[in-house]
Design brief:
The protein is an alpha/beta fold and about 325 residues long. It is built from 13 helices and 13 strands.
Length: about 325
C-alpha cells in the first residue's frame, strides 16, 4: 500500500503542475482572492458545484470568468433576474410552422461552465430548473433527455439574503452545491494592487493553459487519492455530531440545530478533501484536509433554530464547535 501511495504521490506532483499553471494565469487578473480561486479549483477537480456569497464588487463574477478563460472550454453567463423563466435556462420546444413539427432549442445550460450570476435574484421555480442539470448532469426537454457536456460545472454567485429583492435558495437546491464560499473584502495592500490594475483601460490578457481533456484526467486521478478508514470515521463523526450533538459530547448544541448535515455532506467532505490534498501535491488525505474544507462544505447544510437566531448563533459557529469537539485521528 505504501508503495502505491508513493507512486500516486509522484504522479500527482507531476499533474498538480497544471493546477499551479491555472492559479498563476488567473492571478494576472484576480488579486487577493486566492482562497476563493482555490475553492473553485476544488469544485472543478472534484466535480462539485460552488456557490459564492458576498456583497457586490468582490470579484466573484470576475474570478469565475477568469477561471473559465484559463480552461479551453465552453462558458455561459446567465444573469438571474425576477422575470427569468425555466425555459430561459434549459431550453424549450419550438413549433415550426413550415413542417408542423416541434424542434428542440437548447438553453445556455448546455455548456461546460455555467455562471449563474446572482442566483438568488430569481424566484424558486427558476432556481429549481437547475436541479436536474446539477444533480443528474442532464436536461429533459419535452420527452427527450439530453446529456450535458463534460466537464459540467455550475458556479453561482449570490448576495447575502438580508439584502432587498432576493429569494432564499430552497434547501434542496442549496444542498446540491458542494461548497458555499463566503467572500470577504481584500486586504489594504491587495486593494492597492486592484486599484492600480483596474484604473487603467489596458487589462492583462489571459491564455488558456488547460483543456477539458486534462480536467477530466485530473478528476479521475483525484478520485484515486487514498483515504484511510480512520479519516472516513472522522468524517462520519463530524456529520453525525451535526445530527445528534448530545451523543457527541455537545448537548449545548441540540436546541440550536434545527436539522443536521445531509448524507451529501459526508460524500462532499471526502471528495473535496481529496481535491485539497491534490492541490497540496499529496496522494493521501490527512485530517487537515477535512478541517480546511469542512466549513465550506457544512455551513449551508446545518439549519439553525429560532433560539440560535435569537442568541445570534449561526451555522458557522456551530460547525466550529463541532470541529473543536470531535476527536482528530
Amino acid at each position: 500500500m505504501d508503495a502505491d501511495i508513493r507512486e500516486l504521490t509522484l504522479r500527482i506532483e507531476r499533474e498538480a503542475e497544471l493546477a499551479d499553471r491555472i492559479m498563476a494565469e488567473a492571478g494576472k487578473i484576480v488579486v487577493g482572492q486566492k482562497y476563493m480561486l482555490e475553492r473553485l479549483l476544488i469544485g472543478l477537480f472534484s466535480n462539485g458545484h460552488v456557490l459564492l456569497e458576498g456583497v457586490p464588487g468582490l470579484a466573484k463574477t470576475l474570478t469565475i470568468k477568469t477561471l473559465a478563460s484559463t480552461v479551453n472550454a465552453q462558458f455561459q453567463r446567465i444573469q438571474f433576474t425576477p422575470d427569468l423563466l425555466p425555459a430561459d435556462l434549459v431550453g424549450t420546444l419550438v413549433y415550426n410552422q413550415k413542417d408542423g413539427a416541434f424542434t428542440t432549442k437548447k438553453g445556455p445550460v448546455f455548456t461546460n461552465f455555467v455562471l449563474a450570476d446572482e442566483i438568488n435574484r430569481a424566484p424558486a421555480k427558476v432556481q429549481s430548473a437547475l436541479l436536474e442539470a446539477m444533480q443528474e448532469q442532464q436536461v429533459t426537454i419535452g420527452d427527450t433527455t439530453y446529456p450535458l457536456p463534460q466537464p459540467f460545472l455550475v458556479l453561482a454567485t449570490q448576495n447575502p439574503i438580508e439584502q432587498e429583492g432576493t429569494y432564499p435558495l430552497p434547501e434542496a437546491q442549496i444542498d446540491r452545491f458542494m461548497l458555499k464560499v463566503t467572500v470577504d473584502y481584500p486586504r489594504r495592500e491587495e486593494e492597492a494592487r486592484i486599484m492600480r490594475t483596474f484604473s487603467r483601460s489596458e487589462q492583462p490578457t489571459l491564455n488558456a493553459v488547460a483543456t477539458t481533456v486534462e480536467i477530466m484526467r485530473i478528476r479521475s486521478l483525484v478520485e484515486s487519492i487514498y483515504v484511510d478508514p480512520k479519516i472516513e470515521e472522522y468524517v462520519l463523526d463530524i456529520v453525525f455530531a451535526s445530527r445528534n450533538p448530545d451523543k457527541h459530547k455537545l448537548p449545548d448544541l441540540k436546541p440550536l440545530i434545527q436539522y443536521g448535515a445531509s448524507p451529501r455532506a459526508s460524500i462532499f467532505l471526502l471528495k473535496a478533501a481529496r481535491a485539497h490534498a491534490f492541490l497540496r501535491h499529496r496522494g493521501y488525505v490527512v485530517p487537515e484536509d477535512i478541517r480546511a474544507i469542512g466549513m465550506d462544505v457544512l455551513r449551508h447544510r446545518i439549519g439553525v433554530t429560532y433560539e440560535a437566531e435569537a442568541e445570534e448563533i449561526n451555522s458557522e459557529a456551530i460547525v466550529e464547535k463541532i470541529f473543536g469537539a470531535v476527536e482528530v485521528p
